[in-house]
Amino acid sequence: HYLSSSVYLMFRDFKFYRHIPGLSRCISHFSRFLVISSSLNDRIDAEYQAGLADFSAGYLARLMCSSADDTVRALATDLVVETHILSKMHTKYAHVPTERDLLPELVDRALFELKDAIIWTRIKDARRRLAGCGEDFERMMQVMAELKQLEEQRKTVSKLIGDRVIAPRK
C-alpha cells in the first residue's frame, strides 16, 4: 500500500504532466502493473493460507503416526489413512466434498446424536422408575410427565438429526 500511495502522490497532478509525450501511456502501463501485482499478491496469500491450513491439519497426524507408542501409532494410522479412494473419473467430473468440507455438518450431527443418546438413556431410566412405582399414583404421574417431556425433546432432536437415518443403539 506504500507503493500505491507514493504512486498517487507522484501522479496526482497529472494535468501538469500531460504535456510530456508518452507519460499517459507510461501511467496506463504502470496502473495495469499495479492491478496485476495486487491480484497476484492476493492469489499468493490465498495459496499460502491454504498450504498453512493443510500443514497444520496434517502436523498432528504426522506427529501421532511417528509416536513411540505402538497403540497410539496404530490408532493414528487407522484414522489418518483414507479408507475409500475414488477413481479419477469421479474426481474429474464432479467435486467430491472432503471430511474437512463436511466438518461443520458432521460436528452438528454428532452433537445431536449425543443429545439423542442422553435423552434415550433418561427415557429408559424413567420407564424403569415407572415400572417400580407400584401403587404410588402421584409418583407415577410425575414420572409420566417427565417421560412426556423427554419424548418431546427426543422428537425435536430427531428432527434435527433427520428423519431417514436412524443411528444404531449399542
How would you describe this structure to a colleague?
By secondary structure, this protein is mostly helical. Helix content is 78%, strand content 0%. The protein has 7 helices and no strands. Helix 6 runs antiparallel to helix 7. The longest helix is centred in the first third of the chain and has 43 residues, at 23-65. The radius of gyration is 32 Å and the shape is elongated.
Would you spell out the secondary-structure blueprint of this structure?
Elements: H1 2-11, H2 14-17, H3 23-65, H4 70-80, H5 88-93, H6 99-131, H7 137-161
Helix pairs in contact: 6-7
How would you concisely characterize the structure shown here?
This protein is mainly alpha-helical. It has helices spanning 2-11, 14-17, 23-65, 70-80, 88-93, 99-131, 137-161.
Q: Give the N-to-C terminal Cα separation.
A: 60 Å
Give a count of the beta strands, DSSP E runs of length 2 or more: 0
> Helix- and strand-based class?
mainly alpha
**Rg, Cα atoms, Å:** 32 Å
- What would the principal axes of the Cα set say about the shape? elongated
Which regions are unreliable across 5 or more consecutive residues at pLDDT < 50? Answer: none
Give the count of helical stretches: 7
Q: How much helical structure, as a percent, in the residues?
A: over 70%
Roughly what is the average pLDDT, rounded to an integer? 78
Strand percent estimate = under 5%
Largest sheet: none
Order of helices and strands: HHHHHHH
Which keywords apply here?
single chain; about 170 residues; mainly alpha; elongated
